[in-house]
Amino acid sequence: xxxxxxxxxxxxxxxxxxxxxxxxxxxxxxxxxxxxxxxxxxxxxxxxxxxxxxxxxxxxxxxxxxxxxxxxxxxxxxxxxxxxxxxxxxxxxxxxxxxxxxxxxxxxxxxxxxxxxxxxxxxxxxxxxxxxxxxxxxxxxxxxxxxxxxxxxxxxxxxxxxxxxxxxxxxxxxxxxxxxxxxxxxxxxxxxxxxxxxxxxxxxxxxxxxxxxxxxxxxxxxxxxxxxxxxxxxxxxxxxxxxxxxxxxxxxxxxxxxxxxxxxxxxxxxxxxxxxxxxxxxxxxxxxxxxxxxxxxxxxxxxxxxxxxxxxxxxxxxxxxxxxxxxxxxxxxxxxxxxxxxxxxxxxxxxxxxxxxxxxxxxxxxxxxxxxxxxxxxxxxxxxxxxxxxxxxxxxxxxxxxxxxxxxxxxxxxxxxxxxxxxxxxxxxxxxxxxxxxxxxxxxxxxxxxxxxxxxxxxxxxxxxxxxxxxxxxxxxxxxxxxxxxxxxxxxxxxxxxxxxxxxxxxxxxxxxxxxxxxxxxxxxxxxxxxxxxxxxxxxxxxxxxxxxxxxxxxxxxxxxxxxxxxxxxxxxxxxxxxxxxxxxxxxxxxxxxxxxxxxxxxxxxxxxxxxxxxxxxxxxxxxxxxxxxxxxxxxxxxxxxxxxxxxxxxxxxxxxxxxxxxxxxxxxxxxxxxxxxxxxxxxxxxxxxxxxxxxxxxxxxxxxxxxxxxxxxxxxxxxxxxxxxxxxxxxxxxxxxxxxxxxxxxxxxxxxxxxxxxxxxxxxxxxxxxxxxxxxxxxxxxxxxxxxxxxxxxxxxxxxxxxxxxxxxxxxxxxxxxxxxxxxxxxxxxxxxxxxxxxxxxxxxxxxxxxxxxxxxxxxxxxxxxxxxxxxxxxxxxxxxxxxxxxxxxxxxxxxxxxxxxxxxxxxxxxxxxxxxxxxxxxxxxxxxxxxxxxxxxxxxxxxxxxxxxxxxxxxxxxxxxxxxxxxxxxxxxxxxxxxxxxxxxxxxxxxxxxxxxxxxxxxx
Length: 1006
Hints:
Blueprint: H1 2-18, H2 23-26, H3 40-54, H4 58-70, H5 103-116, H6 123-137, H7 157-163, H8 171-181, H9 187-193, E1 200-202, H10 207-211, H11 225-234, E2 244-246, H12 258-264, H13 271-278, H14 285-293, H15 295-310, H16 341-352, H17 357-360, H18 374-388, H19 392-404, H20 437-450, H21 457-471, H22 491-497, H23 505-515, H24 521-527, E3 534-536, H25 541-545, H26 559-568, E4 578-580, H27 592-598, H28 605-612, H29 618-627, H30 629-644, H31 687-690, H32 697-709, H33 713-725, E5 745-746, H34 761-774, H35 781-795, E6 804-805, E7 813-814, H36 815-821, H37 829-839, H38 845-851, E8 858-860, H39 865-869, H40 883-892, E9 902-904, H41 916-922, H42 929-936, H43 943-951, H44 953-968, E10 1003-1004
Parallel strand pairs: 5-7
Antiparallel strand pairs: 1-2, 3-4, 6-10, 8-9
Helix pairs in contact: 1-15, 3-5, 3-6, 4-6, 5-18, 9-15, 12-14, 14-15, 16-30, 18-20, 18-21, 19-21, 24-29, 24-30, 27-29, 29-30, 32-34, 33-35, 38-44, 41-43, 43-44
């Protein structure tokens, strides 16, 4: 009822605020997108809700972006523009630099809106809606947002520095700032300042108040004394200016009226906040008092002021543009305005014409429920890659081409060599020239983090190609998705199918026809991707000196261009030297490539053949594309979609690789394990086979259900295996519960290292139950733990190894020994080394490699909080902790707070098994003391190992597998020792050893 009342009131407010507006302002309407994008608010809300899950500050950050946008030439999204040669980004204005944030979330919103309503909704309107939704989702009012703004084509850093209110402003300066932009200096000022009822501010913006207010050498006298002491503790003089404090000390993440109560209690964080109440005789003080007593009055005035601010000088009608990417103006603004979604649908329909049923399963909406932000995630990785490698866009689209031409778009080009895979990377057209694999790896890692085991590498490559074009100034299109990844590669077919830079037109045409593309429009349009990127001299030098063995240059080469190329690529010179494919705009996706062909400046023979082959039907197409960029873009999109539909694997075909470079270790995951129990009593099995036979889908399901519902389970299972093996060897003793009236079992679950932190027991129970159903009395709980550990690593992107099996289960547990033997998170390097040598592991490579298991999983605050506040009883934090991480952790784990709050062990890829853990140590970002000791202990022999593993993931993976096998062999029970428990939580009632799992010792799994 209350929300309805606010909505009705908001509609009335809109009418009131818009009354008397300028003609441009009057074009704004809450119903502007009712026919063109009716769900825009809902789309933005869903992205925002997802963002809130990982970043409680995001609401306050987005409303601040909207404020800082509107105060500089009106609400035109100028604040979102990045710097270019012609744009001086407002992001680097003093009030924004290193404090404005949330741009990635706006990118996510834009991407989601573009998918639903391409080229319709402006970034300015997205920012306005995001501000309203941020308030509403944080407990504040909701209102009908007038819409119809368009985006500016420029930014103004100087005006941002001039117009934006500062945290150090006096009341007079604040009033002037508001009047200058057209807002009133009382109600608007106080109401909009009330947005500081949620969010954070950095110490740098208020520390002057704590020590040297107005150069007096004393604190601000308007600051409450207790609050002053709290802030001084948080922000010591000369300390880290980036440390964050809550604006509202009472309800820091809720939009309410407590901000005004804080001002009355002299607890306003910023000078500009407290000035509203503490400036003698201020006409704002009474408004603060009113809003502090009456939240409804605050909410009503806040809505009115937000709508008024949102109407500051909007661009409407034909002014400005609808940006396709909120961070930059459109490459050619004429294509950036509204585009009919029916035209995009027509392109898709043309591309799908004649598709096979398999191809028809592809859909633009394939990940709409399972990974809705996949395109945005990939774009984010790509944007970062562009910063250091301008060639990356061209390299990624080439990978997509070279993938699709070999057995269809199945990511086979990404597979590395193995004993069974002949990698396409070493085919002649790819060897020493295909590149960008590391960026695809990064995209995969980022996507897996958000949507584990959902998005194929083939689809990632497809999206990356489209985004590479769009981010380079070319067209954007709706990708058809739903491909799955191949389990093999075909180097021979790559050599046979891929077009060559030395091909004649006839051979090019044959290559395109052979894979199912047409030999005119598809050929010319897709060749147009050579409008950006580079080529090595070896791919065209024969044209310069000995074309077709004539001893002369290619006669179709422009003479001046020939001389330039000969200088760059002298005969007998370095064949790897690079030159631009497009001599005019080498890093921009445009139609200049076709002008180059007409001017006989095509770099490769295969390029120039399109225009210089006498009588070719491709010449007219080159001329059309040369004169009409829109025609090229449209045809390119159609051909890209058609190429992307070449023989995709869909449905149950192929797999979703966890690592794009290799097939999954358990690629036959839907098989069963019938033969397991029919062979012999030697345990020649692995979890890979436990998951791979017709009778055991129950067991498979138990693991995969756990994996899908609990991303932490893999790290938890490997920890159980570690903590088992360090106490009397790998005998499943950690799994035993206490039993009433049985003093022989003192459960290790209650040792200090395990109590309230060891987890995953229910998953081990489920595995055991499934195995007992299929193979009763055969597989020990100790072996289940060993196999589960290996598979946990492999399924999280790490190595696979052959697990030696045949362990038997212990009949007792030893809590005292667990307390004595298990390494703790508070240990020095010397103590860690002692724990490893005591159990029979080496204290350098084993120690560092096995510690690398902290590359995934979580840890509770209780295990590292002493590093944050009172390291070794010093009263200070651990000096080896990175200052930024320290501030983040102190916020997450406040002194005296909840010790069971979780945080990621690996900041970079918390759920992926990789070598980022070691890079974290190098950056002083190790979470636990025991982690950081490996790198920060002066003169330690572990430091070179950390450095090696950080730079060489393969070396880490190999050492980790060796150390895991060594640990798995600690003090084993085999033969007739121990038993095969029927329930992992307790010893068998009659202590019968059931069937012997081996004749003695371990055997390798099949």
